[in-house]
Write a structure and sequence with these properties.
Helix content: 40-55%
Structural class: alpha+beta
Oligomer: single chain
Strand content: 5-15%
Number of strands: 6
Distance between the termini: 58 Å
Radius of gyration: 20 Å
CATH superfamily of the largest domain: Glutaredoxin
CATH topology of the largest domain: Glutaredoxin
CATH architecture of the largest domain: 3-Layer(aba) Sandwich
Number of domains: 2
CATH class of the largest domain: Alpha Beta
Strand order of the largest sheet: 1-6-5-3-4-2
Length: 220
């Protein structure tokens, strides 16, 4: 047991040293592109799905596909803290074509995505950002339906409209199908997951990591 305890201490020391080294590298502006989890044919990923694509940016930009869950805290953090910089520096100038795809991890995700689609496919992206911003108010409560509908009010969706929308089984099935396809094609095992240039990156990416990935790919 003493040996096991010492071994744990040694491992902890190694991890602490690695963390300090990583922190120093970031502080020095030496962010490097993370290693992808796997690779995939990008043309396969970009094939149309059962619902209109939620995309923004010039069609000629480098495609960046995010698979996200509305009940995923890491996805919400990315939406609030990283995506604005990505949009400003890469999407708005036409360097990147950003595509968000629904990955429903649970029935509440399905309901939230269906409501976001209900306001119109052209407004769904903004509705998803709204739900990420309000995530703490509806995603982790005992009775989420009323808070979820309340979170959608700024979009103009009334409670009656929301309840009608939630009965749209075809839309719910399509949301589930998007996630099923992702699981099969890119071997999704968590959210968020990003696919860029045929490389699959699982987990939240920082803006510095995204810069390291994208700068060699985008048009200068």
């Amino acid at each position: 047991m003493a040996f096991a305890f010492l071994r744990r201490l040694a491992v902890a020391a190694v991890l602490s040293a690695a963390a300090l080294a990583a922190h120093g590298a970031l502080a020095a502006g030496a962010a490097t592109a993370p290693e992808p989890d796997r690779t995939i044919d990008m043309a396969t990923v970009l094939k149309p799905g059962p619902l209109p694509e939620l995309a923004m940016g010039d069609a000629s930009g480098v495609p960046v596909v995010e698979y996200g869950s509305l009940t995923c805290p890491h996805c919400a953090t990315f939406s609030r803290e990283v995506f604005p910089a990505l949009k400003k520096d890469y999407v708005d100038p036409g360097k990147v074509r950003f595509i968000f795809r629904e990955f429903a991890r649970n029935p509440l995700d399905v309901a939230a995505f269906v409501l976001a689609r209900c306001v119109g496919d052209d407004k769904a992206f903004a509705a998803i950002e709204l739900l990420f911003n309000e995530q703490d108010k509806w995603a982790f409560v005992d009775k989420p339906l009323e808070p979820l509908i309340a979170a959608m009010r700024p979009t103009g969706l009334t409670k009656d409209q929301a309840m009608t929308c939630l009965k749209d089984q075809a839309k719910a099935d399509a949301v589930v199908a998007i996630g099923k396809r992702a699981t099969e094609e890119i071997k999704m095992n968590g959210t968020p997951t990003f696919v860029i240039d045929g490389k699959v990156y699982g987990g939240e990416l920082t803006i510095d990591q995204l810069r390291a990935i994208l700068d060699p790919l985008v048009k200068k």
